């Protein structure tokens, strides 16, 4: 029987550093044929553009496939599986497939898709890598103390339902073969050690927990785990969500299980920037004032020939020039705003353009 093509699923909450980790991975490819499937949430495929602009030979445009409809596991039959088959059917198929999920997607249904008959004998899940924003989790923004909540729940029925953010976080941890505590450069050594120990205690036996700054990990650490995750689905069961085999008739119910209705995403178009530093400071203020989870996009800067990439989560904003602007490319700024449902779109757009 032919050797199955290994696939690595990179999951993690919004702004945890998945795209940076993948760029670092590609920089170490050394000619190895790695294909990417990127599942972006929102109107603008920012992560796909970032990866396509990485300037690395291992990151050729034809090897980056973007699914821009938001949720892989809601479109397995009509979108993800055909994409996988197309990659596998190439005359020169990839040696490894890396799949970056949306920060809002549950990894378990995606892993389950690898049991579909048309791909089960051809590809295997080498490992599920969950990237954690160590600084954010230490601050309690995207996680909670499960034991403490359970203790409170016994005395208060109002605490039966955790927030969608903590549910997603727990499900991503439950599915992981490796947990990457990222952004340790923003943490003290004690904080990193405490979080690493906590995640080890909350994950399955054998799950590796590693630390990283700026998503920098050696390629052999990330790839070659040989987990065959699709064969151990019961051990990776969702903590809060219960998925069943379904057809198109129950697609809507399946979609709502994900909590996507709990999140909002929209695009803001602005003129080109004159002062990127001042704009970054404004972004921090707007995020704080409106409880935005993540803001990311591209901008042109007056007098500069390069495109500026901007990514922000919480109070941290990262900007860098990624490539020259094309001659016919419009000069301006386009940002995707992601947050929980109920964002005041008009007020956010006005604040960003003020």
Question: Would you write up a description of this structure?
Answer:
- The chain is α/β, with parallel strands linked by helices and 354 residues long.
- The protein has two domains: 5-258, 3-Layer(aba) Sandwich (Rossmann fold); 261-353, 2-Layer Sandwich (Hypothetical Protein Yjia, Chain: A,domain 2), CATH 3.30.1220.
- Helix content is 32%, strand content 23%.
- It has 13 helices and twelve strands.
- The protein has helices at residues 18-27, 46-52, 76-88, 107-113, 117-120, 134-138, 146-153, 164-175, 189-202, 219-222, 251-257, 276-290, 345-353; strands spanning 5-12, 34-39, 64-67, 96-100, 123-133, 178-182, 208-211, 263-270, 294-300, 306-313, 316-324, 333-340.
- The strands form two sheets. The protein has a seven-stranded parallel β-sheet, with helices on both faces. A five-stranded antiparallel β-sheet has the order 8-12-9-10-11, covered by helices on one side.
- The longest helix has 15 residues, at 276-290.
- The termini are far apart.
- Mean pLDDT is 77; it is low at 66-77, 143-163 and 242-261.
Which secondary structure elements does this structure contain, and how are they paired or packed?
Blueprint: E1 5-12, H1 18-27, E2 34-39, H2 46-52, E3 64-67, H3 76-88, E4 96-100, H4 107-113, H5 117-120, E5 123-133, H6 134-138, H7 146-153, H8 164-175, E6 178-182, H9 189-202, E7 208-211, H10 219-222, H11 251-257, E8 263-270, H12 276-290, E9 294-300, E10 306-313, E11 316-324, E12 333-340, H13 345-353
Parallel strand pairs: 1-4, 1-5, 2-3, 2-4, 5-6, 6-7
Antiparallel strand pairs: 8-12, 9-10, 9-12, 10-11
